[in-house]
Amino acid sequence: MLKVKKSGAELSRIVQIGARLKQLSGESGQEYLPLNRGVNMVAPIDLRPVVAEVDFNGEAIQVYPPGAGFARLRQVIADRFFAGQTEANRILITAGGMNGLDLIFQTLDVQKILLPAHHWGSYNHILTIRGVAGDTYRSHAELENRLPELAGCAVLICDPGNPLGEKYDDREQFRLLKRLNDAGAAVIFDSPYRRLFTDEADDYYAQLTGLPGVVICESFSKSLGLSGQRIGFIHSMDEALNRELAIRLMYCTNGINGFAQELVYRLLTTEVGREEVLRFQERTRREIAQNIALLRERGLLAEEFYTEAEPEGLFAVVRCTEQELLAHRIGSVSLAFFTRTDKERAGRYARICVSFPHAKFAEYFLPVKPTI
Hints:
Blueprint: H1 13-28, H2 48-51, H3 59-62, H4 71-81, E1 91-94, H5 96-107, E2 113-116, H6 121-130, E3 134-137, H7 140-145, E4 154-158, E5 166-167, H8 170-182, E6 186-190, H9 194-197, H10 204-208, E7 214-219, H11 220-223, E8 232-236, H12 239-253, H13 258-269, H14 271-297, E9 310-311, E10 315-318, H15 322-326, E11 333-334, H16 343-346, E12 350-353, H17 358-365
């Protein structure tokens, strides 16, 4: 038997739930809503008119891509996501958000990384695999109170959040990020959902370039509907961090998929690409808002989690358990999966993805009643 270095991490419960839903659907012949996963499901972005113009025999597809990513794609990101307030060489193209987070977690030399009390479970598993110490915080106010002890640490902020889907006021959040930066704490700003809800007039990332301790991790999975392409980016103003990230990125990927980079470039720059992005985003935003409104009207939305922020992202927490929703053929994930503390209380709630066609979402949720 081979000797194995065990990481101590586990496979995702979200994936396990998905397999269970497929099994139940096959056994019963009935449809189950896969709201356990974090994929935009309102309607897919139509890539056909964009792909039709791609030269699959050109160098962009047939030659090893540059380690840091195509220069023209990095420049477009600098122009469109940062209002031209940064340099392309501060951007690294990654194999999706998780790859970006893993690179950041393993590269930052910090005492520990603080996660929100309710957070995406994969953060914990990456910390475990990389041997990085973790801690949690319950609120932005708590972070402000703990500022003196956070020098030499990193704080992860996901906005809009996962699993809660909470969106904080940008001005108040920026004030917090500045205080963390000034206190000597690194900030990992994980924001794969923001650009689904904003447009090129959004200058928040440009503002963050004034805070050298902030590292941005982004993904095109949600904002462009490209979950299957596994592509995102990291931005940092710190030259030493960027140099080391570039080395590690090269030797774990040898360059990011050329087709995915070409696809993102065309979606962001060509007339047909921008039209499809706008169409996809407008419909997705509209039906997400309708679904959240329905949950709120039915008393299903767990309002207690949104006292300092608004439910706006891809996810929401409802006043039912995972098993109670499953009885209505709705897939979800217990909130207990997304926290290190107070798991008993969290187990009374479930996280769902609200990026789903509103008509069917309403059909399944109208019979559901809150149990808390």
